[in-house]
Input
Amino acid sequence: DAKTTQPNSMESNEEEPVHLPCNHSTISGTDYIHWYRQLPSQGPEYVIHGLTSNVNNRMASLAIAEDRKSSTLILHRATLRDAAVYYCILRPHSTSGTYKYIFGTGTRLKVLA
Amino acid sequence: GAGVSQSPSNKVTEKGKDVELRCDPISGHTALYWYRQSLGQGLEFLIYFQGNSAPDKSGLPSDRFSAERTGGSVSTLTIQRTQQEDSAVYLCASSFGLGSYEQYFGPGTRLTVT
Output
């Protein structure tokens, strides 16, 4: 199973952009890159996903390196409510026959007021 | 609409007892997933269901763990002869199908084995 590597923790000031990196050097051509976040005492929630091209949604942007061996989740303006553990996950394409989502230890984001 | 629900929210049990954890997925979701999260750790995948079928059970930590899903809806995770290392938060998630990109997680069941 392809693995991801993330920094254990990061800090950001409120209202500033945050770039959360993820390395996935063993990614296969059919793996999607997913990001989830887990707020304190809650289950994870979906943030964004992509395959090759950069992606934007109302929560965040996902920048994927050209060789796909790394990606960056971008929160454009961090708020106190964005303080959470952010997980970068590789999800196999549906034809691969497996749906074992491998969550790493994630990055704990602290937002400073 | 209603999200994924899990019961009980908290369970304290004595070592050696059996426990059953329940998950009610979002209506219409055919795929269901179980994870375990030990204190301060990331999520550990346990098992997934497509309908009532579980194609891959290799994530279950030992043969004391089993899971079933009936009627394509409710799922039960059973841990027999609980051990202290089974203490964790057990999370359930569901999605429209295995190919769906978004999993919806429940609040989890906190299991404490004394």
